[in-house]
Amino acid sequence: MFTLSPSRRSFLAAASAGALTLTLAACSGGSAEQTAPEDVKTLTVIAANSPWTEGLKTLATEYQQKTGVQVKIEAYGNEQLNDTYKVKLNASSSDFDVMAFQVQDVMREFSRNGWLTDMTDYVSSDADWDWEDFQQPAREAVQLDDVVYGVPVMTEREIVYYRKDLLQQAGIPVPKTLDELKTAVSTLNDPATGTFGIAMRGSRVPLVTQYSSFLYSFGGDFQGKDGEATIDSPEAQQAFQFYGDLLRSDGPPGVTNMGWVEASALFAQGKSAFYIDADSQAYTFLDPTKSSVVDTVGFAQFPAGPAGSKFYNIVPQTVGINEFSTKKDAAWEFIKWATSKENTARLLSENTVPGARESAWADASAAEAFPAELVDIIRNAGESGVGHDRPQLEQVAQAREIVGGPAIAAIEGGDVAAAAKDAQKQFQDLLDSEG
């Protein structure tokens, strides 16, 4: 969901003034000093348009200067990217080597088809590069059945956005629990003045990813340890009811037609006291050309439920190796260099790429382009982060359609238990169809 815009670039340039500038010349030791195999002269990377890909273009130029290996980068929109992969990989194409992909949308399908290289030995081969430095949820997100299929290069979490001025005027502390959130939302809901207690996604499919953190914090998940559906568990039903009650009682009208675009716009316009969604939207609210809450927006960790504060900490983009590439070792050397501690911190500082390395976020100079409250949340994510924000199966679009049903029932004041029971059967049938 990260996108670059001229206004965001301008803001980030100002925000990061004085930030540490890391250069290759300053790097010493570690994986940043790796060289490519001598017989490889070119590598081709395919990736989605993103801040990481923009930063990679600079790194690619420097890698060629350092090793003599030319790195060609092809960047696409997400849908075009996936279509491109399927055409090429179905044909066992070896005309590209490094591939950046969306973990939760395609990794299961691509790995089943034999399109992704097993990178387990690669990531454990260099102690200085340090696989353990990557956040645990990010490492878990790029694995299936203990096989590593990529290196996480971007992360995203669900957080709470709030109006500092409204909370201060009402003498309300920043909610640390879901019960406190519910009370604060209810207190600040004032439709008569055009200010609602909370804005969130209420549309059936888009809401599923944001509902996930409520689900985890109530102690549930979409699937059990053995992969069975758990949509009608007591924890899931409580989470559905809580999510629906917030929007039905204290949300804006027409909420079941709202995705992140509509809900975030309400908060940006100052029409909502709270907004809960991905932290990748932070700069929308800090951009004076798009937001009226630039000086009043606050950031907080997802509130604790009965099971604690359990929020998604996902990998929207990871980088792996095409199984049909004839240059796998050379591709790994480039990936290892591009995702080193030094270069991850550099992209965090210069391109505001929310990387997955703990050491980069611990570097105050590298992280100072981000709001301090947001940096604290990311640094302290620890075991609170959950590495997925949707059901884990290949047919994820169909699964989201199913799971969104009980949430809609809750928002509309319907029978959540009956809707969850129906969704449970549909989701289990979908899981069974995948074996």
UniProtKB/TrEMBL annotation:
Recorded superkingdom: Bacteria
Keyword annotations of the record: Signal
SUPFAM superfamilies: Periplasmic binding protein-like II (SSF53850)
Signal peptide (residue range): 1-25
Name of the molecule in the record: Sugar ABC transporter substrate-binding protein
Organismal lineage: Bacteria, Bacillati, Actinomycetota, Actinomycetes, Kineosporiales
